[in-house]
Amino acid sequence: MDPNDDVPDRSPRIFDRYASSDDDDSQSPYPSLHSTNRRLDYMIQFLDRNLLPQQSSRHKSSLPEFVAKGGGQGIFALPDRKPLHPNRPPHLEVRPHPLRETQFGRFLKTIACTDRQLWAGSESGAVRVWELKDLYEEGEEEAAAPFRESSVISSNGNGNAAVICMVGDEGNGVVWSGHRDGKIRGWKMDCESGGGFKEGWCWQAHRGPVLSMVFTCYGDLWSGSEGGNIRIWPWEGIQNALTVTMEERHKASLLIGRSFVDLRSQIAVNGFSSILNSDIKCLLSDNIRAKVWSSGYLSFALWDARTRELLKVFNIDGQIENRADLSLVPDFAMEDDIKMKIVASSKKEKAQSSFGFFQQSRNAIMGAADAVRRVAAKGGFLDDSRRIEALTITIDGMIWVGCANGLLIQWDGNGNRIQDIQPHPSAVLCLCSFGSKIWAGYASGIVHALDLDGNMLGEWVAHSSSVLKMAIGAGYIYTLAKHGGIRGWSITSPGTLDGILYSELTAKGFIYTRIENLTILTGTWNVGQGRASKSSLESWLHSAVSDVGIIVIGLQEVEMGAGFLAMSAVRESVGLDGSAIGQWWLDMIDDTLHDMMERKSQGVMRKQSHQRRFERVGSRQLAGMLIAVWVKDNLKPHVGDIDAAAVPCGFGRAIGNKGAVGIRLRVYDRIFCFVNCHFAAHLDAVGRRNADFDHVYRTMSFSRPSNLFNAGAAGASSAVQMARGANAMGAQSVEGMPELSEADMVVFLGDFNYRLDDVSYDEARDFISQRSFDWLRERDQLRAEMEAGNVFQGMREAVITFAPTYKFDKHVAGLSGYDSGEKKRIPAWCDRILYRDSRRTLGSECSLECPVVSSVSQYESCMDVTDSDHKPVICIFSVEIAHIDESVRRQEFGDIVRSNEEVKCKLQELCKIPETIVSTNNILLQNQDTTILRITNKCNECVALFEIVCQGESTIKGDGQASYHHPRGSFGLPRWLQVTPAAGIIKPDHVAEVSIHLEAFHTREEFVNGFPQNWRCEDDRDKEAILVVKVHGRYTMETRNHRIRVRHCCSTKKIDPKPRDYVQVQGNLLHRADYQRLSFSYDVVDHLRNLHGP
């Protein structure tokens, strides 16, 4: 066998670290000591809970509870929780969903994958890099796999340096990132270990943001920006920068910044009408045919990757745009570069002398229309749901386009529309392809897997937020969610391997399950438009605050009055909330909690440098209703994603004198919702109160606080203002289920206004004085309605053992303070606190299937507070939370792949590479020759997929020997060589024919600020390129390679002329029995024998 044949590529395979036994010995196959100890702790915790259930502290101190009927079904059904989602494949949690508050200013915006690494760019301008071989390991931050992070990028006054796009250059070991400040930065793949590494190269590419980048099959870097601006950075200029020393890189970056080719001049030459004046969001390299696709909002342009000529302009409907002489059309999108302005003005002067007035007017109107259309598209005035969002190319040469309305459109390589499908109504945000599959990521968080014809293979919810970007490497397709989480999905999914992994991981759930214990204090108080003293607040909250982790306070009637309610409704309509009095209450509670914690710490330790304090993390006010949440600082790293909501239930469901405000937060990766309510008043308004609850439960929709960038600033009223429109309230979730039903624990608190039936004022006073609360509870409207299943369905309330909290004379202490006025309102338990956790049965224990189990340890009112006609109430919950230790589960995932024989057998079967042969390993080209390279798939069962890249190019020295072969960008081809097709599918026992063509290209172009400087610099030296035919199967990224030497001879004496029967043949796919008739009759074997092998 020729030594150039069948060279295996050691690129990572699926589950690379565990796929074979001969992996890198430097990687220990065993988990770290820290990880092992954690696993043991979880196992001991599991055994303790299951062998000694009677020791659970929850059962010792919990109060008896009353449970409402009607829960567990319909909109009151509990969310389904399991160790693994039953409707999606098992996945690799590269980076678990981070808390939003920890990501402000550093959200991940894009990802890119190389053979060995996964890269991510953030809005701070920094990049992260994961080694694919280490993805199963325990990391040090965020429970993510081990990664390195660069230094934060300083924008130097040029605007935000956020990373928008990334592209890898495997040939030269560099990853290039495009930034919002218009710069392109280069990062070495073998960057130094540890954090804080810096970019190696940087230049100003555009005045606007770099929206898209791509390497073409000829190694040039193309970048797209706003207003249709596309620039090409020729490989020769980049190569010069890569070869300089560290000290010279700044100078080299300046030279790269001037070496671009501006495609505007190419457009003017070919005379296409207004091409892609909208932002160039997508660039796609068709390496199979040596073309480049660029897309605006609703149109495409097709370019020749070698000559950089514009071939075709067409819109999303497939209609071709006509040519027109645009020498006079003002280019409103052109960047205001001085030299470009000079050229444009000179062209305009020449045209004015040759065109008449009407032609000039026509062109001016067309230009103005273009500008208006472009601004309208950017501003959203043209709300076209067909907007182009993503492009990808498949191995069979088809182009797939994803649109904002969920439409997937298939095109052939020449820009002809083939078909369109709409498997999902949500916007397609990203597309990716490998082997015989296509993946689509949607704004809904769903991922679709399709075959090459667009048929659905699988569908699952990949993330709880939009899927922004996808990348493929080491047998996984990685998805980046809008919240910053990254997951890896096997390229075999859906498939038989999923079931095995699902069963094994589920069985090991106790190893990666962690149980947390948390105490939550909730309080409700109708303050009756008054203000409380600090001593009243301390009496209400008392010493219990020092033992809790979260405090939730709900107030009603903070401020009332017709004028205030009207102004509140107006402020809500423009997305504002809060009031001066509401802020006073927040500040007062802040101060009270601080003072109480100070005294507590001084009593425990006189000199304590570090003490745990409470910090307000969010609040929401609607008219007179106010809710706020405080979190102890040691718990704060586990609490976040804080959202707020409001639902008015007053006149016309529009006024906030009645209604609810809510806060949603994530605690240990579980969802908690707290809702502060004020329902309809009066004894006979039971039906209205029930309707108020139903309206709140069904329509409460949480939206994000607008400025929690600094959680420490949450004390300001603006920290809870909502980024919402006027129609945000009352919206229902997409799935048709209320958002509150999706929470693991929901707590309702407030002035529900339910009264006592069939009891007089005097009877109630007598029973209260005797503390005969059992008789009064039987007449409680709320309890009767809960028993009938009419309200608070499925919720629980601790049995009330305190006196009714309404109605009192202000500033009168004790039970003698009940209403002594003319109306003598009957005392009632108006102020209540109810909850629902994850339990389906009373005896359910905390687990991943039942992740939040709560009990009430204290439920009482504070009769000493006399600042209002209501008494404040508190309820303290003891909560157990089960969550997944993602770091441990990630390692268990790897252990299963390594040790499970059935998994290893499946992997070996899926990772098999079909056997192929090539017709030659040496090709000699001269005078625009074309040679056919044949690739034969000898396997009679599996298809073979191939891709042809160029390992490097060199010039031939005087002795006829080749010098060092330098790779071009992303293993691109030299400009003198055409390979068609450069990728494809070979059926079993079939042959693929590839055309290897020598193109006359003897010039070395240099560009400065977009203009050629020397078009006729002859380069007539002999050259040599090493082509690599990379062959793989459907489900493996490991390849078997064939190396082919292609020599370009400029001298005519080196080879005999071609025979008469020579025909130029396009590469195509032929059955094995057909390819012999297309063989060549002349032979260059004698010459090839004398060539020096690479």
UniProtKB/TrEMBL annotation:
Residues 7-20 have a biased composition (Basic and acidic residues). Its cofactor is Mg(2+). Keywords: Hydrolase, Isopeptide bond, Magnesium, Metal-binding, Repeat, Ubl conjugation, WD repeat. Residues 1-35 are annotated as: Disordered. Residues 516-885 form the Inositol polyphosphate-related phosphatase domain. Gene3D superfamilies: Endonuclease/exonuclease/phosphatase, YVTN repeat-like/Quinoprotein amine dehydrogenase. One of its GO terms (biological process) is pollen germination. It comes from the Eukaryota. Pfam families: Beta-prop_IP5PC_F, Exo_endo_phos2, Ig-like_IP5PC_F. GO terms for molecular function: metal ion binding; phosphatidylinositol-4,5-bisphosphate 5-phosphatase activity. The keyword Repeat applies. PANTHER family: INOSITOL 5-PHOSPHATASE, TYPE II INOSITOL 1,4,5-TRISPHOSPHATE 5-PHOSPHATASE. Belongs to the inositol polyphosphate 5-phosphatase family. This is FRAGILE FIBER3. It comes from Hibiscus trionum.
